[in-house]
Amino acid sequence: MPAQPRSSSAARTGSGRRARLLAAGSAVLATVVATAVAVTTGAAGAAPTATHDPVIMVPGMTGTPSNMDAMKSNLQSNGWAANRLFTWTDSSSMTQDLAKAAQELGTEVDQVRAQTGASKVVLATWSASTLAARYYIKNLGGADKVSQYIGYAGPQHGTTNNGCQFYRSCQQFGDAGSPFLTALNSGTEVPGHPPIAYLTIRSVNDTNAAPYDTAKLAGADENFLLSGAAAPTHFTIISDNTALAEMRAFIIAHENPATGTPTTGTTPPTSTTPPAGACFTASNHAHVLAGRAHDTYGYALANGSAQNLGLDVYYGSTKLRQTGGNYYVLDNTCP
User: Fold this and answer.
1) Where do runs of H (alpha helix) occur along the chain?
2) What is the pTM of this model?
3) Which of 84, 187, 190, 209 has the most CB atoms within 10 Å of its CB?
């Protein structure tokens, strides 16, 4: 017997089911395509997200990690991830042998590297801890684990305000000719340089690390001086906005673009060919006037990348490379 034709309602039901399946399949396909386009577009058009080297912030003699909270908050509010920022101190709060403090700092560095997967860290140190950090770099293998050294108000060459010698650490730095400082400063004051970038920050109103030029290091990439009546004291320098802006700009200028130093398991690039794009070397203010940067609250920020070049001033020079239509990045490989 010939097959009976399906009722019109059954036909409609079958057609509706096929239509719904087709629509659902099309929706899934559209979602996949849209996602692929979004990922591709983001990869091609967005600037790379910065992953800074972890920063370990260390207070000075009798200090506590909370002394560095303002610095930590400042970095985090300016783009540093909270899980890349660490505060630490010992031995015992930098009042004892600074060589022992350096050993303990080395343990902290290794813990931070293991926790973050970073191959190197930035050391941001204050007062007596500036010496422990340099000792670690020079004598305890830190040169291979530190990318940048930042020293705030360090008694690098002793201090005339040395009535604290009931502490072992003060005995080590209270006299410019102490055996500890003589050995630490021998050969080079910037061990591990140039792979390690060095910044010191000092103030004319510092009466603890005195005279204030004791905080300079011969051979440092930059010895930054805060001057004027409003310059910070020994105790406020680590929360001073100008000092912190200088530190941020220095870190960005001396780290590998966008990614910090290579992380564990990453093969560093072997090519020596510089990246494409025109280079411009000028003062920060000249970059602003030329339209390569813009002023934000007295600081020059590179157009496109928004990297902080430091204060919008006429003196000094900063190297920018143009990598897009109005996109500039700090690049110290520029001639």
Assistant:
1) 8-45, 69-77, 98-116, 129-139, 168-173, 179-185, 241-254, 284-289
2) 0.65
3) 209
